[in-house]
Amino acid sequence: MESNTNATAVDAEVPVHTTSGNGNSEIVSSDETPQPRRNRSNTIKVRVPKHKRNVIKRNWSQITFPLVEDMKLRARFYIKALYVELSVTPETPKVACLIKGAEFFKAFIYGFELKDALQLLYIDNTFLDSFRLPSVEMLNPESIYSSYAFLSSVGETKFIIERTTRSRIVLVEDTVYVIGSSKNIRRARRAVLNLLYME
Fold first, then answer.
1. I need a surface site. Which of 2, 9, 10, 55 has the fewest CB within 10 A?
2. Which intervals hold domain PNO1 second type I KH (predicted)?
3. Whole-model pTM?
């Protein structure tokens, strides 16, 4: 068992749950399910893919620190049910913090680096958006190869597009996720689609 002042990780075999020092960040390892809340608008559930479970556990303290300390949210990870529940507390300055917190958590799950996902919490007018890539039938093999290589690697082309559009991009299967302002998300989408349809 590992613990710090921000979160407590509990072995999956332990049939109890424990909380952090401030009680607002915990990993629940039992079969416990949350009690119904009167105001569901004050709670958001974020589904965690099974292959991301251990990643969330390992990084729990880092992920939840800004949520608990700055957004003043409560975070609970239900390991067996595979979802994270975020909810407001009496100290939460505004409900918008809950929405930002959920988008931040989703961004981390999709594969964005923590420092990039944090933009969703601290930079105004920054959003998480996504779009599907065109079907294979619409593209020629060279475009498919070069485009997927660009999106799934850390090559120079990706960095150039991210810098020029002031955005961050992650590819998950056939879906592209983008972090940025509304304008920059549109610019990044155009850049990616232009790459796909290049001759």
1. 2
2. 155-196
3. 0.79
User: Are residues 128 and 177 in contact, defined by beta-carbon separation less than 8 angstroms?
Assistant: yes
Domain that holds residue 176: 127-196
Q: Is 38 exposed, middle or buried (0-12, 13-18, 19+ CB in 10 A)?
A: exposed
Report residue 18's pLDDT band, with 50, 70 and 90 as the boundaries.
Answer: very low
**Per-residue tokens: 38:** 């009167």
Neighbouring CB atoms inside 10 A of 150's CB total 19
User: Within this chain, do residues 95 and 168 fall inside the same structural domain, yes or no?
Assistant: no
Token pair belonging to 17 = 């749950």
How far apart CA 107 and CA 84 sit, in angstroms, is 13
Question: Hey, what are 16's tokens?
Answer: 């109890």
Please report where in the chains the tokens 């961004």 appear, as a residue.
107
Q: Which H or E run includes 25? A: strand 25-28
Q: Could you tell me which of 55, 39, 186, 164 has the C-alpha nearest to residue 117?
A: 55
